[in-house]
Design brief:
Layout: E1 3-4, E2 27-31, H1 35-42, H2 45-65, H3 70-101, E3 103-107, E4 110-115, E5 121-126, E6 130-139, E7 142-149, H4 157-160, E8 175-179, H5 182-199, E9 208-209, E10 215-216, E11 223-224
Parallel strand pairs: 6-11
Antiparallel strand pairs: 1-5, 2-3, 3-4, 4-5, 6-7, 7-8, 9-10
Helix pairs in contact: 1-3, 2-3
Length: about 230
């Protein structure tokens, strides 16, 4: 599988792509993760904020139980609040970096993921390497679109994170994460894959499943993911 590394996004001939599109290939959709959704669903900022809140409550209750002076209790809570602000601020900054440096592209023959906060990587996924899709709903049309690759195509979970489906270490599934229009993106990709498969029969076999666990034959569609 080819990977193209680009150092400066400004030098891209087409935003999100390592080069101009070949003749006959068309761009169908582009999008990027929402910083708010990345912070909430990937970095779990609400859970971390809740954890620090519990620590603060425990510090207050424990302080009164131990007979500590009010000033000491206030100081402990202030320290926990400052630590919480620093940690959550760093998470929010990283989520913003993911939003700014990531661009997903769906064309008539491939999916391209350009990502990387520390260093930029552009990953090409030709349709002939894609076996199935999975849509994880995050509410209000937002969610993730996971891409299941056909056997023989391996990726590094660590290199791809957070643009991967969670807990799929053995068979890594690159994902378009935290999209505000995930349903639209999955529909565009499913249709493009169907059209590509009808022209290049045998290159990819898509799977359609309903809201349950079992799969059944049918036209290309999107699996419901966890």
């Amino acid at each position: 599988m080819k990977q193209f590394v680009t150092r400066e996004h400004e030098l891209e001939p087409v935003p999100g792509l390592p080069g101009t599109l070949p003749e006959g290939e068309h761009m169908l959709w582009q999008g990027r993760p929402s910083a708010r959704l990345v912070a909430r669903h990937v970095l779990k900022n609400r859970w971390i904020a809740g954890y620090f809140l519990l620590l603060a409550v425990w510090a207050v209750i424990g302080g009164f139980y131990d007979g500590r002076p009010l000033a000491g209790i206030v100081f402990s809570v202030a320290v926990l609040t400052a630590l919480a602000a620093i940690v959550i601020g760093m998470l929010e900054l990283f989520a913003w970096g993911v939003h700014k440096t990531t661009l997903y592209t769906i064309t008539s023959s491939r999916v391209v993921l350009r990502f990387g906060v520390a260093f930029s990587i552009t990953l090409n996924l030709p349709f002939k390497q894609i076996g199935a899709l999975a849509l994880a709903d995050q509410g209000n049309g937002a969610g993730n679109v996971a891409i299941q690759l056909l056997p023989g195509h391996r990726l590094s979970w660590l290199v791809q994170w957070p643009h991967v489906r969670g807990w799929r270490f053995a068979n890594v599934e690159p994902s378009l994460i935290c999209l505000t229009d995930a349903k639209k993106a999955s529909d565009v990709l499913a249709l493009a894959l169907s059209q590509h498969a009808s022209v290049h029969s045998g290159h990819a076999r898509l799977t359609q499943v309903g809201s349950g666990e079992g799969a059944h034959p049918g036209p290309p569609a999107v699996e419901a993911a966890e």
